[in-house]
Amino acid sequence: MTEQKVTFREISEKDAKIFFNMAEEFYHSPAVLHPVPSLYHSIAFSEMMRSHHYLEGYIFEDKDQAVGFAVTNRMMQHEMGGIVVWVEELYIRPSYQGKGLGSFFLRWLETKLQGKAAAIRLETEPENTRARVLYERLGYSNMGYQQMIKKLPRKES
């Protein structure tokens, strides 16, 4: 496979099942610390369909076959002096991994965001040296932060 055969397109309503399946694959892979509830996939998909203000999703296709996806999140970051696009999820199905697709997508995204964002941000698990080496080769650097989070109680609807 060459990267030119794979295309990236914005996710659409018709991609719900594809997205849910690949999100489950991703969140049960070694690339993440732990799975997330399936409900979270629905919430993210609904937000991508509602507006492109926060989340945007992309499906990676080889011919008509979905081979990966990415979800990006937009935020204003004072420290960077503008909009930062966070690559929250970047998943490539195992049979397509190691073929340059991740770097192809990140270069494509950088071109798409030229003049529209101040930075692209991403994260990886410390043990995922393969991803870290790729990101460093593409010019990403470690921010030196230890990120922390506090989950808030979910409002039942």
Characterization of the model:
The structure is a single chain. The protein contains 4 helices and 5 strands, in the order βααβββαβα. The radius of gyration is 16 Å and the shape is globular. The protein is 29% helix and 26% strand. The protein has helices at 16-26, 38-50, 101-113, 129-137, and strands spanning 6-10, 55-62, 65-77, 82-92, 119-122. The chain starts with 5 loop residues before the first strand and ends in a 20-residue tail after the last helix. The protein has a 5-stranded mixed beta sheet with strand order 1-2-3-4-5, sandwiched between helices. A hairpin with a 4-residue loop joins β3 and β4 (82-92). α1 (16-26) packs across α2 (38-50). With 157 residues, it is α+β, with helices and mostly antiparallel strands.
Number of helical elements: 4
What letter string, H or E per element, gives the SSE order? Answer: EHHEEEHEH
Q: Beta-strand level of the residues, as a percent range?
A: 25-35%
Binned, the helix content reads 25-40%
Q: What is the end-to-end distance?
A: 46 Å
Overall pLDDT score: 92
Strand order of the largest sheet: 1-2-3-4-5
Low-pLDDT residue intervals, each spanning 5 or more residues: none
